[in-house]
Amino acid sequence: MKNFKFKIYDNSYSVKIVSHEDNLINLEVNGTSYEVEMKAEVKKSKTPVLVRSAAKAPATPVKVNPGSSKTKILAPIPGIVVSIDVKVGDVIKVNDRLLVLDAMKMENQIAAEKAGTVTAVLIKPGQQVLQSEVLIELS
């Protein structure tokens, strides 16, 4: 395991720790084997163990106005709009790419979760948006 060199009263000692389990240590001093029992108890790590409970149910997306016939596409994270792939009047399907949002030097593609027609584009390329800001409206 580990090798040590000691000098005590001009005598040199080469110590090799062979094994260490709980309070018992097997070591060799200048080639002679010894088994040593430590008096003090070996301290255990004080690092707490993190235990997380399982999630009860997956989080459901927040609907801005569930009774409305319009669907609002919200910014999932703050960032800068790189490009917009739709315009007012476009008919889109589920998973069609609507825009690209740059956040922390990563481009995130925002896709449609619902089919519909684009009724409003409330952003423009280069614009900075905040989390949960309305980007596009669908009907």
From TrEMBL:
SUPFAM superfamilies listed in its UniProt record: Single hybrid motif
Checking InterPro entries in the record gives:
Biotin_BS, Biotin_Carboxyl_Carrier/Decarb, Biotin_lipoyl, Single_hybrid_motif
Pfam families in alphabetical order: Biotin_lipoyl
- On whether Calcium is a keyword of this UniProt record, the answer is no
Q: Which domain of life is it from?
A: Bacteria
Alphabetized, the UniProt keywords read: Biotin
Q: Which residues form the signal peptide?
A: none
Question: Ranges for the Lipoyl-binding domain?
Answer: 63-139
Kindly provide the name given to this protein in its UniProt entry.
Answer: Lipoyl-binding domain-containing protein
The record lists the organism as: Aureibaculum flavum
